[in-house]
Amino acid sequence: MPVTKRETLETLAEIREINNSFPYNRYVRQWKENGGKIFGWFCTYTPEEFIYAAGILPIRVWGGFEEFALDKANAYFYPTSCSTVRSVFQVALEHKYDFLDGFVLGSPCEHARRLYDIWTYWIHMPFDYPASILFVHTDEAIEHYYEGLLDFKAKLEEFSGVSITNDALWEAIHLYNRTRELLKQLSELRKLDNPPISGADALEIMNACLATPKQQFNQILERLADEAASISRPGENKKTRLMITGSMWNNPDFLRFIEDQGCLIVVNELCTGMRYWADPVEADTDPLKAIARRYVTRFPCHHFYPWEPRIDRMVEVAKAYRVDGVIDNLVRYCVALGFMRPLIRERFESEGIPYYNLEQMYNARGSGQVKTRIQAFLEMIDFRKEGAEMPLQT
User: Fold this and answer.
1) Whole-angstrom Cα distance, residue 80 to residue 367?
2) C-beta of residue 60 within 8 angstroms of C-beta of residue 80
3) Which residues of 260-283 are buried (b: 16+ CB within 10 A; e: fewer)?
4) By the number of CB atoms within 10 A of the CB, which of 32, 65, 150, 389 ranks highest?
5) What is the pTM of this model?
6) Which of 132, 164, 196 is the last residue of a domain?
7) 102, 132, 164: which is the final residue of a domain?
8) First-to-last C-alpha distance (Å) of the chain
9) What is the mean pLDDT of the chain?
10) Preceding amide of 2 cis, omega within 30
11) CATH number of 86's domain
12) In angstroms, rounded to a whole number, what is the distance separating the alpha carbons of residues 87 and 106?
């Protein structure tokens, strides 16, 4: 069958419509108008399947898709608090999350835990819950998370008046696994010499995915996957291939800004990227055990100990997508990732993969200084490809 060539993915227009109406898009509004409850969640260690099985729509809360003033939120946090959590709370203080019926935290770090404390104290919602997880790769951590799910289940059933059955849990698991499968299909296309999806496109897709009921969004993803498989972008194979990693990030314009310097981000190793969808919930006799095992053993974030499995997997992904370099984008005051950076850099450089650090406020726009630094990084990669030596200054 001949390849159909288009300049853009037409389905992206629908995805951009969803993102342009952040955070109350038409699918969320329809759910609410039909009498459904909606919970906001923070951190991908929140078990969405569990919330959905109770008949409640889970959507991710974040601070929009660009940097903005945090005057209101700054009154509630220390100046050195992560700008991500301050941005999220700024949006909440502006009443953009008033449609939520509950708030659930995946408990990723101290900054997020303080967000939970401040949110639940100042923004009164009918339901709130901290989903606790031990950030270690052990059977004890799985058992701890499983016991927490039993408590979460009891609280959800009390709030919703719905009995969360095993059948409901498996239905939710299959629905969310289908989302992960479709996102993986799209990501596999980015391994091609001429990938039909850019790093900016992929982040736009994820932003909409995390804010839309999966029934509707899976249909969008199916159309998008079919369309993307028929697109070719001649000349993209000549561009430097990068992996983006680092803190939580939602601003696709910044990734587009990076790509405009003459490169292509072929994999987003972010919690708004591969770490969200990489691992499905595996079959088990007990759906609670299956969910607990998935969330503890999935592609780890930088909070997990020991660190080696995470770094090993990052390198494995970089090689699978044939990247020429890695940009690590740290949100300012993200302490956990900051501690990890020397270990990550050492490992990538031992593998011969150039690695570069950026540090900026959450969802910052591109600047002249950042542009110069990215261009210098890309130049260094080109020199290495040509066999010349050009030390990188950071």
Assistant:
1) 22
2) no
3) ebebbbbbbbbbbbbbbbbbbbee
4) 65
5) 0.94
6) 164
7) 164
8) 48
9) 92
10) no
11) 3.40.50.11890
12) 17
Does residue 390 fall inside a structural domain?
A: no
| Contact indicator for 109, 117 with CB cutoff of 8 Å | no
Which amino acid appears at position 237 of this protein?
N
Distances (CA, A) of 278 to 40, 163, 185, 249: 22, 30, 11, 17
Rounded distance, CA 247 to CA 31, Å?
31
Burial class (CB in 10 A: 0-12, 13-18, 19+), 113: middle
Using left for φ > 0, alpha for ψ between -120 and 50, and beta otherwise, residue 75 falls in alpha
**Residue 366's domain is classified under what CATH number?**
3.40.50.11900
Tell me, rounded to whole angstroms, the distance of Cα 251 from its chain centroid.
11
- DSSP H helix total and E strand total for the chain: 15, 8
Identity of the residue numbered 337: L
pLDDT band at 337 (very low <50, low <70, confident <90, very high): confident
Of residues 349, 324, 219, 322, the one with CA closest to residue 263: 324
Instruction: Report the distance separating Cα 102 and Cα 125, nearest Å.
Output: 6
224 with 151, same domain: the answer is no
pLDDT tens-digit readout, 343-374:
999 999 999 999 999 999 998 988 899 999 99
Residue type, 196: P
What one-character DSSP code corresponds to residue 249?
Answer: -
